Automatic annotation (TrEMBL):
It is found in: Membrane. It comes from Hyalella azteca (Amphipod). It is a multi-pass membrane protein. It holds the Pfam family SNF. Keywords: Membrane, Symport, Transmembrane, Transmembrane helix, Transport. The lineage of its organism: Eukaryota, Metazoa, Ecdysozoa, Arthropoda, Crustacea. This is Sodium- and chloride-dependent taurine transporter-like.
Length: 157
C-alpha cells in the first residue's frame, strides 16, 4: 500500500511532467512516454490490484498448520509497521493543519520555495532548465543539445 501511495503522490500530485523534468535535469535526457505511462498508470493499478488480491486471499494464520495465533499477536504484528509510520503521518498532519490554520490551504500541494539541490550552481542550473523546458512546452518544441546535459556539466564546478 505504501508503494501505491508513493506512486500516486509522486506522479499524480507532484506530477509526472515535473518528475520527468527532474530526471532530465539529473540524467540529461527525458524519460520515454512508455516510462511515464508506466509510472503514472500501470504501476499504481498493478500495486492496488496486488494489495486487494492479498486482502481477498487472507486467511487466519496458523502455527504448525493447526493452532491459531492469539488476537494480541496479530494486533502486535499489524502495529509494528504502523509505529514506524506514525511520526511521518503526525508531522504531515501538523504541517497541513498549520497551513490551513494560517489561511494558506492552497499551499498544501506546493513544494517549498527552497526545494532543490543544495549546491547554488546546481540550483541555478535546475531553475534555468525548468524555465527552458516550460518555455519549450509552451512553444510545443523540445529543448535538446545533443546528448549533453544542458542543466549540469560537472566540468564547470
Amino acid at each position: 500500500m505504501a508503494g501505491f501511495f508513493t506512486c500516486v503522490t509522486v506522479h499524480w500530485v507532484f506530477g509526472v511532467n515535473n518528475f520527468s523534468d527532474m530526471i532530465e535535469f539529473m540524467l540529461g535526457f527525458r524519460p520515454s512516454v512508455l516510462m511515464r505511462v508506466a509510472w503514472a498508470c500501470i504501476a499504481p493499478v498493478t500495486l492496488l490490484v496486488v494489495f486487494v488480491g492479498s486482502l481477498l486471499q487472507w486467511r487466519w494464520p496458523l502455527y504448525a498448520g493447526t493452532i491459531h495465533y492469539p488476537v494480541w499477536a496479530l494486533v502486535l504484528g499489524a502495529a509494528a509497521p504502523l509505529v514506524t509510520l506514525a511520526p511521518l503521518v503526525i508531522v504531515a498532519l501538523v504541517h497541513v493543519m498549520e497551513l490551513v490554520w494560517n489561511g494558506r490551504g492552497r499551499d498544501i500541494l506546493k513544494h517549498h520555495h527552497q526545494w532543490g539541490p543544495g549546491c547554488p550552481v546546481a540550483r541555478q542550473r535546475l531553475n534555468e532548465a525548468v524555465r527552458l523546458t516550460r518555455e519549450a512546452q509552451r512553444l510545443n518544441t523540445r529543448v535538446t543539445k545533443g546528448s549533453v546535459n544542458i542543466a549540469f556539466d560537472s566540468t564547470d564546478l
